[in-house]
Structure formats: C-alpha cells, structure tokens
Amino acid sequence: MAGEPQADCLFCKIVSGEVPATVVRETDTTVAFRDINPQAPTHVLVIPKVHYSDAASLAAAEPQVTADVLREAGGVAADEKLDETGYRVVFNTGSGAGQTVFHAHAHVLGGRGLNWPPG
Ligand code: AMP
Ligand code: ZN
Prior knowledge:
Elements: H1 10-16, E1 23-26, E2 30-34, E3 42-48, H2 55-61, H3 63-79, E4 87-90, E5 106-110
Antiparallel strand pairs: 1-2, 2-3, 3-5, 4-5
Helix pairs in contact: 2-3
Bound molecules: adenosine monophosphate and zinc ion (ZN).
C-alpha cells in the first residue's frame, strides 16, 4: 500500500534501523543522515519515514510530510552553518536524472562552490 515500508527499499531499512546510517536529525516523520558517497563537504539526505518513490508522489499524498522534509533540509543547513553561505536542495527524479534509490529524498549539499546550472 502507498506509504507502507517496502521490503526491498534501502531507505526503508535505514528508517527501521536494519541498515545503519550516520543520523544527524530525526523527527516523527523524517530522518536526516550523511550520504555514504558525499559530493560536497556537507552532503546529507533528508527522507520521509513513509515510502514514496519520489518527491512528487510524496507531495501528492503527504503534503505535510513534504513540508517536514523541506523544513528539516533547512535545519540541516543551519546545523552545518550553510544558511549564510548558501546550499542546494536537490530531488533527483527518475533514473535519467540520476535517481538510484526510489524512496523520496532531498539531498542537502554545501560547503563548497556550487555551479549553476548543475550537470
Ligand atoms: P539518488 O542517486 O538521488 O537516488 O541518491 C541516492 C543517494 O543515496 C546517493 O547519493 C548515494 O550515495 C546514497 N546512498 C546509497 N546508499 C547509502 C547508504 N547506505 N547510506 C547513506 N547514503 C547512501
Ligand atoms: Zn522506502
């Protein structure tokens, strides 16, 4: 059922604790943890605890949780002192855009120069 944990989903396993992660923030609805293959000095993923394949599907079903994810992305940026220097929040959507884990997640990237447009 939509939103339910998926047995084969890596990020559902991080939510349940079955797969370890370096968690930096957690709320009733979200978990934020360091990316295992960081692309910037700060690279944190913020995920909803509920399973949806991408950000748009999450937003359609759970607008409040989507807001929680974005608020927590801002919280990560503040914790990491990125809110003054600037940071980027990215939702890769679809394999053509580089999405590899099909559980919605926000990348929070900062601590270095960030080119625009991204590659
Ligand atoms: P995406 O390519 O947008 O789907 O992002 C998935 C991200 O998850 C990538 O940046 C990976 O480096 C990251 N990742 C994969 N496995 C883990 C893990 N076990 N713990 C933390 N991050 C992970
Ligand atoms: Zn999942």
